[in-house]
Design a protein that fits this description.
Helix content: under 10%
Oligomer: single chain
Number of strands: 10
Number of domains: 1
Distance between the termini: 31 Å
CATH superfamily: SET domain
CATH topology: Beta-clip-like
CATH architecture: Beta Complex
Strand order of the largest sheet: 3-9-8
Bound molecules: zinc ion
Order of helices and strands: EEEEHEEEEEE
Number of helices: 1
Strand content: 25-35%
Largest sheet: 3 strands, antiparallel
Radius of gyration: 15 Å
CATH class: Mainly Beta
Amino acid sequence: MKLYKIKKSKIDNRRGLYASKDIKKGTKIINYIGKIVTNKEVENSSKYDNDKPIYLFTLNSRFTLDGDFHWNTAGLINHSCDNNCDYDGKGFKVWVSAIRNIKKGEELTCDYGFGFDKDYKQFPCKCGAKNCCGYIVREGSRFRINKKFAMGRNKTNK
Ligand SMILES: [Zn+2]
């Protein structure tokens, strides 16, 4: 049985993935699949201009996984500032794994890991989490938007 189902998301009004049963921390939930391209291709092709970095996953110094395909179900997972899953890469495989216990019916969310740059306002975040910084920016960079995230690492482990 699959650990997820596709449902309309509360976060962005499109689709998202939801836990179809209770999931234990550390469980691999879904394979993030796509096409492997070289980092050079990413640099040189207009397809990879800033509009869709959401689907790019850097595998190593030479290769990137491009998950921008309708058959990549894991690409439906939304970003949250209080994510319950994360991407977990090994070699050329990328999994979405639970980083805490997830209850049946919860939406599965990841940290998209966007860096902070001059374009960050292009990607507003509507995750609704208490610690939402308002934009899709990786946890370690949120303090650049608002000083109160400087201590961000402490948040959920209580
Ligand atoms: Zn947020």
